[in-house]
């Protein structure tokens, strides 16, 4: 009899056979969510992180790339890009937002996505890259191959979210985006986070 077993979404699922051109993504939250969910690192279940503050709602599907970790290799890329206010990776799996024209109602699912760029975000001294991707096969976004091809309004919407989602109105900014990068560097970040994962967890 096969035991009833659910793979841990961070450790038990591969990055994908076509990585880094196509990666598996575990979606945690969707644009309609008013609660920020994240995977509990110990159990693998989705848990409530916090209510979304004010009207700041994620403008894309959001989650992480399995079997990635942001530490020394991801930090190295940030330093090489000229970021001087960064001292460590954020010690989490690699964040990724996925653009899709489909109305997906809830997280907790896997999908394939194509990295097309990202944001070199610095969060209180931590390298906290946000990969931007498109859902594989999406009829409206699936043909994009680099963030430079996206409408600037779409890029600015994503940037605004990441620059403000942790802030209260009377607080100073906690995050900054050091640079916006294209598909080639996004794939470097994916590979660097895979090396960090292998150093931390093996495999």
From TrEMBL:
<protein>
    <recommendedName>
        <fullName>inorganic diphosphatase</fullName>
        <ecNumber>3.6.1.1</ecNumber>
    </recommendedName>
</protein>
<dbReference type="InterPro" id="IPR008162">
    <property type="entry name" value="Pyrophosphatase"/>
</dbReference>
<dbReference type="GO" id="GO:0006796">
    <property type="term" value="P:phosphate-containing compound metabolic process"/>
</dbReference>
<dbReference type="GO" id="GO:0004427">
    <property type="term" value="F:inorganic diphosphate phosphatase activity"/>
</dbReference>
<dbReference type="GO" id="GO:0005737">
    <property type="term" value="C:cytoplasm"/>
</dbReference>
<dbReference type="Pfam" id="PF00719">
    <property type="entry name" value="Pyrophosphatase"/>
</dbReference>
<keyword id="KW-0479">Metal-binding</keyword>
<dbReference type="GO" id="GO:0000287">
    <property type="term" value="F:magnesium ion binding"/>
</dbReference>
<keyword id="KW-0460">Magnesium</keyword>
<dbReference type="InterPro" id="IPR036649">
    <property type="entry name" value="Pyrophosphatase_sf"/>
</dbReference>
<keyword id="KW-0378">Hydrolase</keyword>
């Amino acid at each position: 009899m096969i035991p009833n077993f659910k793979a841990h979404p961070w450790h038990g699922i591969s990055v994908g056979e076509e990585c880094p051109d196509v990666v598996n993504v575990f979606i945690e939250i969707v644009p309609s969510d008013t609660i920020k969910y994240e995977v509990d690192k110990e159990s693998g279940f989705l848990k409530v992180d916090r209510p979304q503050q004010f009207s700041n709602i994620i403008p894309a599907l959001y989650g992480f790339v399995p079997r990635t970790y942001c530490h020394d290799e991801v930090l190295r890329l940030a330093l090489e890009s000229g970021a001087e206010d960064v001292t460590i990776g954020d010690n989490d799996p690699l964040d990724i937002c996925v653009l899709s024209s489909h109305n997906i109602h809830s997280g907790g699912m896997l999908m394939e996505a194509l990295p097309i760029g990202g944001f070199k975000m610095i969060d209180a001294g931590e390298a906290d890259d946000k990969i931007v991707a498109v859902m594989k096969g999406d009829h409206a976004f699936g043909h994009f191959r680099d963030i430079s091809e996206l409408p600037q309004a779409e890029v600015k919407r994503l940037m605004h979210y990441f620059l403000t989602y942790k802030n209260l109105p009377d607080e100073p900014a906690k995050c900054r985006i050091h640079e916006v990068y294209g598909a080639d560097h996004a794939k470097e970040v994916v590979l660097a986070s895979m090396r960090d994962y292998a150093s931390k967890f093996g495999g």
